[in-house]
């Protein structure tokens, strides 16, 4: 058994290293998406106005498309789920609590959480399953990524307004500019579950940077300071995405992006990851390892 595990780990390590090197090359990303024959007249019950052809055109050109809107009944069910189920401070399985108890939990632990995530959401919330299985979302994923693309990861998390937030925390929790390398090609759908303005941690995306970025932003892979991004891309291409609860967008997060740190109001976000191999964005965790903070 030890030999089997070791061999498996070596194979996986080599696969990840190859992907991390090759997935930054444009023609490799293009080649990996060849082979899907688009389905026509694909319609969505959840997003009737979403046209896969229009979305794909925007994704190819800009790396992003905005215009999804969760039906109110779906939004309400997801919000109810986030109130009923425990969330976990800074994604630590040992720091579970109910969102209504955030102040009491932080007082007891002496911690100021940067964020709090939910685990195993797909199997616990039918509304999230409906969104993840939506015909238009899956059609867009296959047209952009290739015929083997499918939903592989789910995340819901709170980003908390935190005056004491330092560079270390912003770096650890992706609140500095960066790009993702989850797979050779992949996309993520984001849905705001609370109203998001410039004071509540909007998503920020550099349009077109999925196709072209300075070499110093590509190698080595690292977090980027705001001034590095602002001095390298047109101001008009640095998009700050505000919106109402239920608003959604899809993007290729190989582009430069970040979730801004909330200044005054907390933000709740749903993310769905589509690719051909499991990335770094799934929320599955052994339930026996999840522990609640006692109040």
Describe this structure in words.
The protein contains 10 helices and 11 strands. The longest helix has 21 residues, at 2-22. The chain is α+β, with helices and mostly antiparallel strands. The model is unreliable at 1-5 (pLDDT under 50). 32% of the residues lie in helices and 19% in strands. The chain starts with a helix and ends in a 20-residue tail after the last strand. It has an 8-stranded antiparallel β-sheet with strand order 1-9-6-11-5-4-2-3. A 3-stranded antiparallel β-sheet has the order 8-7-10, with no helix packed on it. It has helices at 2-22, 26-32, 52-62, 72-84, 102-109, 126-132, 135-145, 167-172, 215-218, 226-230; strands at residues 64-69, 87-89, 96-97, 115-117, 150-159, 187-192, 203-206, 238-241, 247-251, 257-259, 267-275.
Largest beta-sheet details: 8 strands, antiparallel
Residue windows where pLDDT falls under 50 for at least 5 positions: 1-5
Report the radius of gyration as a whole number of Å.
19 Å
Q: Roughly what is the average pLDDT, rounded to an integer? A: 89
Helix content: 25-40%
Shape: globular
Please name the defining characteristics of this protein.
disordered N terminus, eight-stranded antiparallel β-sheet, 295 residues, single chain, three-stranded antiparallel β-sheet, alpha+beta
Give a quick rundown of the structure:
The chain is α+β, with helices and mostly antiparallel strands and 295 residues long. The chain has ten helices and eleven strands.
């Amino acid at each position: 058994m030890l030999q089997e595990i070791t061999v498996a780990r070596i194979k996986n390590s080599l696969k990840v290293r190859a992907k991390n090197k090759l997935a930054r090359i444009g023609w490799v990303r293009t080649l990996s998406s060849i082979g899907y024959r688009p389905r026509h007249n694909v319609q969505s019950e959840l997003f009737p106005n979403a046209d896969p052809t229009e979305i794909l055109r925007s994704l190819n050109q800009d790396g992003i498309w905005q215009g999804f809107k969760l039906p109110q009944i779906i939004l309400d069910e997801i919000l109810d789920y986030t109130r009923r189920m425990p969330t976990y401070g800074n994604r630590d399985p040992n720091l579970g609590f109910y969102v209504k108890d955030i102040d009491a939990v932080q007082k007891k632990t002496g911690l100021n959480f940067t964020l709090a995530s939910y685990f195993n959401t797909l199997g616990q919330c039918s509304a999230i399953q409906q969104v993840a299985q939506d015909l238009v979302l899956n059609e867009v994923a296959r047209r952009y990524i290739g015929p083997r693309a499918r939903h592989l990861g789910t995340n819901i998390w709170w980003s908390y307004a935190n005056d004491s937030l330092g560079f270390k925390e912003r770096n650890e929790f992706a609140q500095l500019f960066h790009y993702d390398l989850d797979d050779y090609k992949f996309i993520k759908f984001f849905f705001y579950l609370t109203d998001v303005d410039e004071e509540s941690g909007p998503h920020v995306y550099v349009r077109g940077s999925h196709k072209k970025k300075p070499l110093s932003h590509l190698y080595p892979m690292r977090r980027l300071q705001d001034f590095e991004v602002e001095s390298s891309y047109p101001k008009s291409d640095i998009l700050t995405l505000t919106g109402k609860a239920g608003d959604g967008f899809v993007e290729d997060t190989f582009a430069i992006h970040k979730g801004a740190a909330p200044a005054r109001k907390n933000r709740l976000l749903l993310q769905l990851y589509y690719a051909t191999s499991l990335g770094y964005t799934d929320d599955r965790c052994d339930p026996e390892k999840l522990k609640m903070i006692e109040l």
